[in-house]
Write a structure and sequence with these properties.
It holds the Pfam family V-set. The protein is of the alpha+beta class. The chain folds into three domains: about 110 residues, Immunoglobulins (Immunoglobulin-like); about 100 residues, Sandwich (Immunoglobulin-like), CATH 2.60.40; about 90 residues, no CATH class. The protein has six helices and 22 strands. Helix 4 crosses helix 6. The N and C termini lie far apart (about 115 Å). It binds 2-acetamido-2-deoxy-beta-D-glucopyranose (5 copies).
């Protein structure tokens, strides 16, 4: 009997200081997207009222280095960090981070000192950034080995899964170079698949599929092949070709003429061989599907393609 009583007293003397005087709770980990504002949660509970703010001290550490402290005011050398001093009296010591950087990722420690008690709790902060896809080549040559390439960029963390598809079926032999680091800490990678395009592939839908930890649903970009036919007449010969000029003279009726010129251009646009100077404009319109270019974020769309065709139509008329 006496022994049991002694044991209970012993147990209480171990439990009570840690269990009831000051408790600090944090989640095991916290996640936020790059560039957003976030708050790493930390709550504390003091079990001996009344609360005296002069006894309270809060420290935040990143990878064991002090980054912020709070007594009656917040002190930090990083302008993006703060804690809401108005909330501390409600037991909140959460760390606010504005404009999250990749370098903010790491092991945080929320340390609450309420004289004479002190509790430290660790929370790991993960930053993530979703990938973006830019198709960098979909120009192919019929019956010749042709590489489809895409740049997958601005993602974090590094691990990423890429697949190339034709009509929803995985193409074998897709490769991915090792990811390169950008200045802001995000990654970019180039992926390629080599195919030998057949006539049947002309109207088929190709896709690149990307899975990444930041995405709840995989990212997919669809496109069609753009055939570069080496045997077709090039632009120079096309413009001066005699049958074409004759066609203009014979079909003088206005709407009929318009129609025939335009449809001729559409079919030709697929087989047009660009010169070096054309390279830039070509890369802007070659992708059928609308997509965002990486640098400028400028939107390309089909109306631009038709403008391109119209421009060529004007040239060719004379
Ligand atoms: C609190 O933070 C400031 C600024 O980072 C620092 O100068 C000061 O030494 C810190 N105070 C304590 C008690 O750690
Ligand atoms: C993020 O925090 C900064 C600094 O506190 C503030 O100026 C900005 O408006 C916040 N942005 C958003 C989207 O809340
Ligand atoms: C591709 O589509 C065009 C028009 O959409 C059609 O005229 C042509 O026959 C199709 N070609 C093949 C190989 O399916
Ligand atoms: C394009 O046409 C010009 C003029 O006929 C010719 O000299 C040139 O070799 C042609 N280029 C190609 C790639 O066929
Ligand atoms: C295409 O872009 C032009 C301006 O660049 C815009 O006015 C037009 O609404 C866009 N069309 C579509 C279908 O997005």
């Amino acid at each position: 009997m006496e022994q049991r009583g002694a044991l209970l007293i012993l147990l209480f003397s171990f439990l009570s200081p840690s269990e009831s005087l000051l408790r600090v709770t944090v989640p095991r980990s916290h996640r936020a997207p790059l560039g957003t504002n976030t708050s790493i949660p930390c709550q504390f509970l003091i079990d001996y009222p009344p609360f005296n703010p002069h006894y309270l001290l809060i420290y935040w550490y990143l990878n064991d280095r002090e980054i912020l402290n709070y007594t009656t005011k917040v002190r930090t050398s990083n302008r993006r960090l703060s804690i809401n001093s108005g909330s501390t009296k409600f037991g909140k010591a959460s760390l606010d981070i504005a404009d999250v950087h990749i370098s903010d990722e790491g092991q945080y420690t929320c340390s609450v000192l309420y004289t004479p008690e002190r509790r430290d709790r660790n929370v790991y902060f993960h930053v993530h950034a979703p990938p973006r896809i830019t198709i960098t080549n979909n120009v192919v040559t019929g019956n010749k080995k042709s590489a489809l390439t895409a740049s997958i960029h601005d993602f974090y963390p590094k691990d990423l899964d890429v697949k190339w598809l034709r009509e929803g079926e995985i193409l074998v032999g897709g490769t991915k170079l090792s990811p390169q680091r950008n200045a802001d800490g995000t990654y970019r990678v180039t992926s390629t698949v080599t195919i030998v395009p057949t006539e049947e592939n002309r109207n088929q839908s190709f896709s690149i599929w990307v899975q990444h930890g930041s995405l709840s649903v995989p990212l997919q970009e669809d496109f069609q092949l753009l055939y570069e036919d080496l045997n077709a007449p090039n632009r120079t010969t096309g413009r001066t070709s005699l049958p074409f000029t004759c066609a203009l003279l014979i079909f003088a009726a206005r709407d009929l003429r318009k129609k025939s010129i335009f449809s001729d251009d559409v079919s030709r646009s697929r087989s047009f061989i660009p010169t070096k100077n054309d390279q830039d404009s070509r890369s802007k319109w070659k992708n059928k599907k609308t997509f965002r270019t990486s640098e400028s974020g400028e939107e390309d769309n089909t109306s631009r393609t038709s403008k391109y065709l119209l421009r060529n139509k004007e040239k060719r008329r004379f």
